[in-house]
Every structure is written in structure tokens, then in C-alpha cells.
Write a structure and sequence with these properties.
The complex is a heterodimer of chains A (88) and B (247). With 88 residues, chain A is α+β, with helices and mostly antiparallel strands. Chain A is built from two helices and four strands; from the N terminus they run ββββαα. A four-stranded antiparallel sheet of chain A has the order 1-2-3-4. Chain B is built from six helices and eight strands; from the N terminus they run βββαβααβαββαβα. The chains are: A alpha+beta (88), B alpha/beta (247).
Chain lengths: 88, 247
């Protein structure tokens, strides 16, 4: 199915994009839909993007639902392991 | 069946007379023939849908696929343009209608046109094909597993498109529907609902439903591909087009 459902978040950070160049990420778009490349019928897709730099300023990931949940858990663990003063 | 084909990028007048990119494929042979507007899926104006467009030329039609994401990201890679389109909220229905109308007019303007034009769409394009058939002067339409032609989105589902239930009484041409029985959107029950609405309104339609097939069973580059359903589906499409486009 095409879910059409899209969640967006503003970002402050960087990503390594096309041509191996780093760029400042300003937006993340998150959706569960057909992947372009991953061998799964549906994946959790994240576009880390900088729209002001054009459509190609994008790092795309396509993760199975299980992988996406594992990523969430890993992010939470990493944040929890850091001193609170550094993550608030 | 034509012996030679040509395929290339062209510019056509879309909604609001915007000049947009499109992919044209046609037989080399002279003679009058029908045209097919191919509506790509949400992942964009991609290689797989260009292959589909060329297949219509191989079947003997002039075929054109407008790049529905062109305005969002001119000349970007199809996957990047699709990402921008999604971030912008998707393709608005009004703009889709203008682009399909422009594509059909383009086909009818070709020296090879017999004046007939059909529309076919896949996935989100299936819904858009039905939308076009309810609003535009077309001779036939094909809906390949379009989600949300009917049906209510799940609770909490942040949809940006509505269903077409209120427009279906205005369907202006015969509709061929191809669906997988393992699909959830549209589910077999939603296909039943669509069929009931068309029947109640006296519309010309023909549905084929395939076991062991879910969503996107025509997609040869995805795990969803189901050869038996896709092969039969293409046969149904060829026959339907021959009937309604003057073959």
C-alpha cells in the first residue's frame, strides 16, 4: 500500500551525502511505505535532508520494521548512557 | 505488433499550462492508433514505470508518462524528487487532473492519434487513474490496486488524500480493475465496495482479482512481484485497450 502518512521533524545536525560531502541536515521525513531499494515490501523510510540545498541533499535509509525498532532502542540506549547534562 | 519503437523525454503542457517533463514511447510505424497515459506510483517517475510505458508502445499504442513530481524537483533523480513530493504533502488532486488532461491532449495531438486515449495507474496512481476517469474526457481507465478509491483510513491515520466515493457516480468511461487478494489497501472488502458502487450506478467495469498476490504485483523490481498475476493482468490490459482504443 501507499500509506501517504508522513511524519516530519526539524533537525540540527549533519549527514554525509552525495559525493561523500557532509552537509547540515535541517529536516527529517519519516514514513512507512514501499522502499526504492530494500528487498522488503514495506519499510520504515527516513530522509535526512536539507531542502534549501536542493533535492539531492538527502541521505535516505530504508529499514524493515524490526530494524527500525532496533534502531530506536539503540538510540535510546546511547542517549541514556550519556550524562544527562550533555543530552538536555 | 510494432517492429521498432522510439522512447524519449518530451515536454508537455500540464496543469495550469506548466511545461512539465514526460516520457513518451511510441511505435515507429505510421498509422492511426490510440494513446495511453501512464500514471506512475508514489516512488516516482522511475525506470520500472518507464519500462511499463515502453510496453504500451510495444502493444501498439502511443504512451506518455507525465512526471508528476517535476515541479517539486525539476531534473532531480526520481527517488529524490519523490522524497521532495512526499515532504511537500504529495501530488494535489487538482494538479494531477491538469497533468493527465495535458498528457491526454498531447497524445491526441500526435499525427498518429485515432482520437482515443486511456489512463492507467499503479498504486497511488491507481486511485489517480480513477480520479481522472471521473473528471476527464477519456475512453478507458485502468486501476491497478489503487488504495483509498473507497474505504475509510484507519483511525489516527494522517492521510492527505480522501477517497473517491462521492465522485464515482461521475465515472465517464469503462474501468478495468486489477487487484491482489492479499492486499490490505485496497482490501478485498474494499474492492467489493467499489464494485457495488459501480454496479449500483450502472457503470461499465471489469475486475480481476488474483490469489497469491498482494499490493504492487506488477512491480518486477520488488519482492511483491507475482509472475502469474502480472502475466494475466497484462493480458487483460492488452485486451481491454484493444476493445476501447480501437486496437
Amino acid at each position: 500500500m501507499c500509506t501517504y502518512a508522513t511524519s516530519k521533524a526539524s533537525m540540527t545536525g549533519s549527514a554525509k551525502g552525495p559525493g561523500g560531502a557532509w552537509f547540515a541536515v535541517t529536516d527529517a521525513t519519516v514514513y512507512f511505505d514501499h522502499p526504492v531499494h530494500a528487498m522488503a515490501e514495506h519499510t520504515l523510510n527516513i530522509d535526512f535532508a536539507a531542502p534549501a540545498r536542493g533535492p539531492s541533499a538527502r541521505v535516505a535509509v530504508e529499514l524493515t520494521a524490526e530494524s527500525a525498532r532496533a534502531l530506536i532502542s539503540a538510540i535510546e540506549s546511547a542517549l541514556a548512557a550519556a550524562p544527562v547534562a550533555l543530552t538536555t | 505488433m510494432p517492429h521498432a519503437l522510439t522512447a524519449r523525454t518530451v515536454r508537455i503542457s500540464g496543469d495550469n499550462d506548466d511545461q512539465i517533463e514526460a516520457y513518451l514511447a511510441h511505435p515507429e510505424e505510421p498509422g492511426l492508433r490510440g494513446g495511453v497515459v501512464v500514471v506512475h506510483h508514489m516512488p516516482g517517475y522511475d525506470r520500472a514505470t518507464k519500462e511499463i510505458t515502453r510496453r504500451f508502445a510495444e502493444l501498439g499504442y502511443d504512451a506518455v508518462m507525465p512526471n508528476l513530481h517535476y515541479r517539486d524537483a525539476p531534473d532531480a533523480a526520481p527517488d529524490d524528487a519523490a522524497a521532495v513530493s512526499r515532504a511537500n504533502g504529495g501530488v494535489p488532486d487538482a494538479r494531477l487532473l491538469g497533468d493527465v488532461a495535458g498528457a491526454a491532449a498531447f497524445l491526441r495531438s500526435l499525427s498518429t492519434s485515432n482520437g482515443k486515449a486511456a489512463v492507467i495507474g499503479y498504486c497511488s496512481g491507481g486511485r489517480q487513474s480513477v480520479l481522472a476517469a471521473c473528471n476527464l474526457d477519456l475512453d478507458a481507465a485502468v486501476d491497478c490496486y489503487g488504495a483509498f478509491v473507497v474505504g475509510t483510513p484507519p483511525e489516527g491515520f494522517p492521510l492527505q488524500v480522501g477517497n473517491l466515493v462521492d465522485q464515482l457516480p461521475n465515472l465517464r468511461c469503462p474501468l478495468l480493475g486489477l487487484f491482489g487478494n492479499e492486499d490490505s489497501y485496497p482490501s478485498p472488502e474494499q474492492v467489493d465496495e467499489l464494485e457495488q458502487i459501480l454496479r449500483d450506478n450502472g457503470k461499465s467495469y471489469e475486475f480481476h482479482r488474483y490469489d497469491d498476490a498482494g499490493h504492487a504485483f506488477f512491480a518486477v523490481d520488488r519482492p511483491a512481484y507475482r509472475v502469474a498475476a502480472a502475466n494475466d493482468g497484462w493480458e487483460q490490459i492488452a485486451r481491454f485497450c484493444a476493445t476501447h482504443l480501437g486496437g
